[in-house]
Amino acid sequence: MPRTAEQPTASPTTPAVQTPAASDPLLQLEYETQPPSGPGAVRCAQCPHELAMRGIPVTCSACRARRDWLLINHGRRVWIRCRCGSEWLEPEITRKDFDAMLVAPSWTYYPTLEQARIALGFDGIFAGLYLE
Known about the structure:
- By secondary structure, the chain is an alpha+beta fold.
- The chain has helices spanning about 25-30, 95-100, 115-120, and strands at about 40-45, 50-55, 55, 70-75, 75-80, 85-90.
- Strand 5 (about 75-80) and strand 6 form a beta hairpin.
- The longest helix has 8 residues, at about 25-30.
- The protein starts with about 25 loop residues before the first helix and ends in a 12-residue tail after the last helix.
- The relative contact order is 0.21.
């Protein structure tokens, strides 16, 4: 659940991935290569380098990490998640900023946001480690 330092906010939820009903492999491939869209779409991007908001480096309040983030975009909001499992809403990062970080995206679909966190290693199991 995304957390902020001030007060809790609603967690982004991911609807189950719906695939086209057609059994045509070309239609399936076309569907899988399209970027996520719609009001329920949640996108994640890994950010291995340091982030600075208005010149101030982003630091995890739980483990003091300064790099290797997972950015989660849902609607207009962006959350930052650390490898230790700490997560917070970052109002300084706009959706436009998030889109600019997606240089050459390769889309991987996960049925839920929690499954994406686990698959990408941001569920707390790699707390204290920088993966490069």
